[in-house]
Every structure is written in C-alpha cells, then in structure tokens.
Write a structure and sequence with these properties.
Elements: E1 2-10, E2 14-21, E3 27-35, E4 42-47, H1 65-79, E5 83-92, E6 103-104, H2 107-114, H3 124-137, E7 142-147, H4 166-170, H5 180-193, H6 195-198, E8 201-207, E9 211-217, E10 220-224, H7 245-253, H8 259-268, H9 271-276, H10 282-287, H11 291-315, E11 320-324, H12 325-330, H13 332-339, H14 351-355, E12 369-372, H15 377-393
Parallel strand pairs: 1-5, 5-7, 8-11, 11-12
Antiparallel strand pairs: 1-2, 2-3, 3-4, 6-7, 8-9, 9-10
Helix pairs in contact: 1-3, 5-15, 11-13
Bound molecules: adenosine monophosphate.
C-alpha cells in the first residue's frame, strides 16, 4: 500500500479533486472534475501530465456532494488499487478571524466553520457538505481544512477593518481577503526561485473568473482587494467588484430588490458579463468585435491599474508584479493593458516576452520585475495535509 493525499474543492454544482502520492513530496497523480452535480453530472479525469483518462465510472449517482464524493471513492479504488488515502485536504473558503493556517477537521472545527456560512453563503455550505461527505467516505483518513482567508490573517488593522462602528468588527464584519491558497503558492514559488524579490514588495494579480490582488511584504499579505466577501475589489467574470454601498441601498429602496435578487445581480449578472452584455469569459471578449466587449476589458484593466497603484502605496513601493490565474497566465492583451502607462511604478513590459507567455515579461532595464507564474492551489492543500500527517506521525 502506498499513501496518498486526496484534495477536494467542492463548489455549488461541482467537485474538483486531486490525488497526490505522498512518498514523492507530495506529487500529483491525477486530477478530476465532477460537474453539473444535481443535474446531469459529467466526470473528467486526467493523469499528472494532463492527459485525459477514461474514468470507467458512471457519474449518474452524483446527485449531491455525498454522491460525488462516493464517486471519487470508487475512482480512487479503481485507479489506485494499492493506494491508501491517508489524508483528505479540503478547500474551505472561510476560516473566519481565527484560522491563520490549515486546521484538522474535527467535529468542533466543523461546527465552528458553520458559523461562517452567512459570511460566504454561495461557497461555504458546499465546502462543508463536501467535508462531511468525505469524512463519511474516508473515515480512516486525516481530514484537513485549508482556508482562502488564512493567508491574510496578519493584515494590519487598517486593512482588516471597515469604517463602521467598532461593534461590527467585533461581530466579524471585517476585510478577510480570499484567494489565499493561490497567494501562498506564489509566495512559495518566489521564495524558491527569486528570494530577493520574495523579501521585497510584491503585488500578485490573481486574474481568473474570480479575481483579486494582494500586496506581499517579505512574502506575507499586507493588503488585498477582496474584503468581507468575494465580491469586493476587481470586477470579475460575473461579480461586480468594488461598488458604492449606496447603490445597494438605492436598489433595495427604489427598485424593491430583495436580498436574493441582489445576490444574483452582484454575484452572477455583473462584472465582465454584465458590462459586455455577452460573456464572462475573457477569451470570448477578446475575440469579439463588439464595442461593449472592449469596454468591459477596459474597465477590468483600468480597475487593476488603480488597485496596483493603491497596493504599491500600501507596500511603500513595488519590486515585482506577478500575474496568475486563467487570465493572468494567458491573456497577453490584459497583461499589456495593465502595464500600459505604469512606467511611474518602474514597469517596462517586454512585448516579445509578453507575447511568448514567458515567466519574466518585463524588459531587462525595467526597475520592477513583471512575472507570470502559473498558480497551483491544489498542491498547497496537498502539502498542508501532508505536513499535518507528518506532525501526527512525529
Ligand atoms: P480561471 O478561473 O483561473 O480558470 O480563469 C478563467 C478565465 O481565464 C476565463 O475568463 C478565460 O477566458 C480566461 N482565459 C483562459 N485562457 C485564456 C487565454 N488564452 N486568453 C485569454 N483569456 C484566457
């Protein structure tokens, strides 16, 4: 029997999973996705090289998270017959104010995390449903929760609070920040490959369907664009990003919108999709001739430049800008637009390197390094689970 770590990322209608061999580090073995859970589920499985493999299991039973986790259990048995799942690492969006690192998912911790369901109603219930299902399916395995909020828990107070009466801060109404697993990975990559930059002032732009930016000082989060919820900061695929709260009051009072309607509007109908009137997908917008598609990209890149200036101010300058996420890692246009006119921050993009999707895309003489680093949230979860296993064994 060889020991493995399973990583799970449970969403509203999907379950992403990864299988990692422990002996090598952990090293990825397979990655999968079950989508349309509760509808007509589909299952995709790839090996570590990214090659699709026939899963050989019928996904029809994945009618909820428990059914989807049961399917993962059968897949593990089929594809890793001599592999034992020693630990399951879970992505959990909200760890609240106290979890500054991964946590063993005991009954108490799970119950505590229920308190943050109202803070992240679109993500937390599904994450916890996945965690409960995995505890039932893999009862012998160590269960570890990794939080998107943990990485930001050392924010200075001015970046942790809103200017509301203090009692709201005490009740948990704070700027938590998200995408922490991605920032953790990038900070680790910088420490490994560019230690001087890691010790300096870095802004990471995680630009995907969800998007945020984080200011790192010596590898630690000092400020980030997402706040109490994953709505704040940059516009995203379907989320609005920064919004005057007066707009919400107006929509409730004058247009009679309910909280459910507002949640739909702000989470699902806004951002690139709302502005373009056509798509949340950057590739589709880049390919479109429609003026509204171009305007949506303009708004997106303008907000990134604004936040970049703000984060550089919070850091007292800038040594490196790192792009990651589906858009950050692939869109030459977005990276070029973000860096346009940013010479005042020491940024000089090298056009050919940017076109080639190189790791360093700034010019040799650029005072600020601009980099593209593919992020990997799953390996952060797998490493955390492996480390906790190691501590348990010690
Ligand atoms: P993520 O949520 O990190 O998977 O990122 C999804 C986003 O990345 C979508 O908006 C995609 O359109 C965008 N994306 C992926 N590949 C490319 C590409 N080659 N050019 C532009 N955008 C891309």
């Amino acid at each position: 029997m060889s020991a493995h770590v399973l990583t799970l990322n449970a969403g509203s209608s999907s379950l992403k999973f990864g299988v990692f061999a422990l002996a090598e580090g952990p090293e990825p073995r397979a990655a999968g996705l079950i989508e349309r859970i509760g509808g007509s589920p589909a299952l995709h499985l790839r090996d570590a090289a990214g090659t699709a493999i026939a899963p050989g299991e019928d996904p029809a039973g994945a009618t909820d998270q428990a059914g989807a986790v049961g399917l993962v259990l059968r897949l593990v048995a089929r594809h890793f017959p001599d592999g034992e799942i020693a630990a399951v690492g879970h992505r959990v969006v909200h760890g609240g104010p106290d979890h500054a690192g991964p946590a063993r998912l005991s009954d108490d911790v799970l119950a505590g995390l229920e308190r943050f369901v109202p803070f992240a109603p679109l993500h937390q219930p599904h994450n916890l449903a996945g965690a409960r299902a995995a505890r039932a399916a893999f009862p012998e395995a160590l269960q570890v929760a990794c939080f998107d909020t943990s990485f930001h828990r050392n924010h200075p107070w001015v970046n942790d609070t809103f200017a509301l009466p203090r009692r709201f801060y005490d009740r948990g109404v704070r700027r938590y920040g998200f995408h922490g697993l991605s920032y953790d990975y990038i900070a680790g990559e910088l420490a490994r490959s560019a230690p001087l930059l890691h010790s300096g002032r870095v802004v990471v732009a995680h630009l995907g369907n969800g998007a945020s930016m984080c200011g790192l000082l010596g590898g630690r989060s000092v400020a980030s664009t997402m706040g109490f919820s994953a709505l704040d900061g940059l516009p995203m695929g379907t989320r609005c990003g920064q919004l005057d709260p007066g707009v919400v009051l107006y929509l409730m009072d004058q247009e009679g919108m309910t909280t459910a309607e507002l949640a739909d509007l702000l989470y699902l109908e806004s951002g690139l999709k709302g502005l373009s009137g056509m798509a949340n997908d950057m590739r589709a917008l880049e390919a479109s001739e429609a003026p509204a598609a171009r305007e949506a990209i303009d708004y997106f890149t303008f907000r990134i430049r604004r936040e970049l200036g703000g984060l550089a101010a919070a850091l007292g300058g800038l040594d490196a800008l790192v792009f990651c996420g589906g858009i950050g890692e692939n869109s030459r246009l977005v990276r070029a637009e973000v860096c346009r006119g940013m010479q005042w921050l020491g940024i000089e993009l090298d056009r050919a390197r940017n076109e080639a999707n190189a790791r360093i895309i700034s010019a040799d003489l650029s005072r600020t390094h601009v980099m593209v680093i593919p992020t990997d949230e799953e390996i952060v979860i797998a490493r955390a689970a492996a480390a906790m296993l190691g501590e348990g064994a010690a």
